[in-house]
Write the structure tokens for this entry.
Amino acid sequence: MAHRLADRLKRIQASQTSASSLVQSLGSGQYQSSAKALPAGRSLSGLSQWSLISDSLYQFTSSFSLEFPSEFDPSPLLLPSLSLALSLARHLPKPLEPIGRERLVFIDLETTGLSTGAGTLAFAFGAGSFLPSGEFSIRQLFLSDYAGEAAFLREILGILRDESVLVSYNGAAFDIGILRSRCILNGMRFPETAHIDLLRVSRRLWARPAGGASLGILEDRVLGQGRSGDIPGSQAPERYFEFLKSGAGEIILPILDHHRRDILSLPALMGKALSLFDQPLLPCFVDGSRLGLCLAALGRPEAELLLKKTLCGELPQAGASFAFRGARCFSRVEAAHILYRLYKKEGRWSEAAAALEAALPIFPLKLEPTDTSFSLRPLPSWAKPQAFYVELSKLYEHRLRAYPVALSWARLALEYELGEPEKQKIQARIDRILGKIKNR
């Protein structure tokens, strides 16, 4: 044991020395990958198909046939928070340049923990990219001992060029931070590349109808590619530590297979999202209100019709598994509220009132125990019938000048349990409307 520890310390010292000599070349972003095959027969048990390319560093390459557009508009994937989406509809960002698929690098890590602190180490890195032939190639790197981390990071930096566009799933919050911190600790510069995190757009499009936004859930309910015989990624740290103790590749191989499947799912999920934005009115499994809001933020004319379809419940339900009925009803009510806001901005007052009125039969919104991703959050204040009644009263009083109708909506709002300040505001509205009716 002591002899093995001494060997590790010597390798760590050697790797740190070589890392310091690379700082200048890495700073210029010109470093080239140094991967080369070493003599055969040095593979770990269970990893016979993996090539040893450096001390404690293994590599495996696989190829797949995938359909993916040769180039695409990245704008729908890069929208900011949806709370800003409608304001963006007034000041649309400049169109982005199309991105060719050869620039994309789909990345994923397996790590020793879920923290992004300095104590978390990445032991597996995968990068998927499209070849000129259209074939999708995945290159995986596996760090079999801590001493090889410098070489591990150098190989990664040889893949991630400044002109690359990285694609990840939750990489903005995790993978990129891990890689950047490990590079800093090893005296290396992590490139400043463009990045598309698919988690954000996936949450918008599918989290509510699918009942969650984990990659496994979306593979099953969006891609129709549920995994069989797979192990959860949460086992990665434990299995890696067991591997370090025993050196048995059979322990870590299921994690590396899981890792490869994660990477393979990324272009499939991204292609699905791009197809929804390309043809949003086709029948599809999607959260219609959120897709409609994204389209409105992009200034797309299909937004209104999609929101109307969602409000009327015309989107497919994907069988009994679709929300999670409470979430589906909420999506319909949200579509009505978005239409109301869009019509108000355009001065289409009658249509704004009609959108709110169409949603009233959907109430009350009852969430079921299975609506776990949803029921733990309180409903927003606008998603309650009394809020709709108040807005209708405002429209009929101030814009449509139909005072008796405005009065009836205000009185309906007053029937609900309200706080005293809110009651006083509605009562004041009722008194004002009565005065207007009397003075006509």
